[in-house]
């Protein structure tokens, strides 16, 4: 039995009065499950991982035989290894040019290899177990320059550690004549680099003109004999007595070697 009330919005059902059309009634309907709209259960989703770029495979080192003009990953590895060992190979660019060749010469000289500029199996093996340069003098100051005239290389030490190893070209022993500044007659002598113990003294930045030619960033250590950069630095003695350095080495040498630094020049057996 049902009875409707005349009051708007009031309905009597089975003796129970219900308010229709208000928020409270709506809540009651949801609570009782009457008139409620049920949403379908959410379907679980699995996140799709973002695509990743494959890890590039490093180029394997073949350890090829290398000669000037080569360009590959082995050349870059050679440059990096020589730089670690304090030989200055120049820019790490994977190109075997003249700068790298001078560093290869220096390594070959220190490690008693044939000075050819060719990087072969013996060279690669020596890179794995390199020899340390031998001190040329019993005087072993922690900061010094050692010059080996027999093998044609020098070593710069800083605080007891090797800071630079470079090939050089010293006096070739030939007889020559030259007119000194202010002299009226030429003076003749042999082109030798004297052995002994010296110290660095006067220096100049850039090119300096001497009676025997142009010197780049010279640092004098024995009268008119200096360390200096040159455009011609063969692997053998070729100077009038100075110690020639490759141009890229002459750029960094003045920053590594100050004034009054001991210099030991020897011709070891």
UniProtKB/TrEMBL annotation:
Residue ranges annotated for the L,D-TPase catalytic domain, each copy included: 143-264
The entry lists its GO molecular-function terms as: peptidoglycan L,D-transpeptidase activity; transferase activity
Q: Which keywords fit this entry according to its UniProt record?
A: Cell shape, Cell wall biogenesis/degradation, Peptidoglycan synthesis, Transferase
Query: According to its UniProt record, in which pathway does this protein act?
Result: Cell wall biogenesis; peptidoglycan biosynthesis
Please give the InterPro entries that the UniProt record associates with this protein. LD-transpeptidase (IPR050979), LD_TPept_cat_dom (IPR005490), Peptidoglycan-bd-like (IPR002477), PGBD-like_sf (IPR036365), PGBDSf (IPR036366), Transpep_catalytic_dom (IPR038063)
Q: Which residues cross the membrane?
A: none
GO CC, sorted alphabetically, is: extracellular region
Q: Which residues carry out catalysis?
A: 228 (proton donor/acceptor), 242 (nucleophile)
Q: Which protein, by its recorded name, is this?
A: Murein L,D-transpeptidase
Region Disordered, as annotated, extends over: 27-72
Per UniProt, the ranges with Low complexity bias are 39-50
Q: Name one GO biological process term.
A: regulation of cell shape
Instruction: Note the CDD domains from the entry.
Output: YkuD_like (cd16913)
